[in-house]
Amino acid sequence: MRLNKISYSAFLFLEGESMKWCTIEKEFLDKLRNYESRIPNTDYGQEKFKPFFGVLFEVGDLCYVSQVSHKKSRHYNMTDNKDFIKLYNGNRLLAVVNLNYMFPVHKSKLINVEYKNISDFRTFENDIEKGKYISLLKKEIREIKNKNVSQKAQDLYKFKYDYPNHFVSLRCLDFKDLEKKCFEIL
């Protein structure tokens, strides 16, 4: 077996109810971001909160997570591929997922985000705004499950190391390097 080959036995694939919204302990995320600046934020101020979703898959004590991005005009003309997935509500584009930015997190650093406690993570002007935000999160997570994003994440991980010079692989974070870094910063 070549060194860059990945064995699927290293993965723990989780489906269904395991796909949830989460956040990550700030100190751990900041340290990881100091090492890899492309790791996204979750906290954008009191009225902005962009949770991660996962667990996409596990490698040992590490869980892979990703994040949805707001739709932009350029996304309408783009097609789904190995690292880019559009999320729809009916025919309406809701958001996109850039799996090239998925990253590992030690299990102990994950914090579940539950709808009933969403106010712990951001402020809302009123209950109507809060309800709309929760409704959006529910639509997005349903579409993430329907699009089988967990399997696509595993496929991308394997693809990156099977085809390291492919343009998709080159725009991905270095997953294995980040796995090592996660243990260094614990």
CATH class: Alpha Beta
Strand content: 15-25%
Structural class: alpha+beta
Count of discrete alpha- or pi-helical segments spanning 4 or more residues: 5
Rg calc: 16 Å
Main beta sheet, described?
Answer: 9 strands, antiparallel
Integer average pLDDT: 88
GO molecular function, one term: RNA binding
Pfam families: ToxN_toxin (PF13958)
Protein name: Type III toxin-antitoxin system ToxN/AbiQ family toxin
Question: What can you tell me about this protein's structure?
Answer:
This protein is an alpha+beta fold and 186 residues long. It has five helices and nine strands; from the N terminus they run E-E-H-E-E-E-E-E-E-E-H-H-H-H. Strands 1, 2, 3, 4, 5, 6, 7, 8 and 9 form a nine-stranded antiparallel sheet that branches.
Question: Could you give the topology of this structure?
Answer:
Blueprint: E1 11-13, E2 20-24, H1 26-35, E3 52-54, E4 57-59, E5 62-70, E6 84-89, E7 92-98, E8 103-106, E9 110-112, H2 127-146, H3 149-162, H4 167-171, H5 175-184
Antiparallel strand pairs: 1-4, 2-3, 2-9, 3-5, 4-5, 5-7, 5-8, 6-7
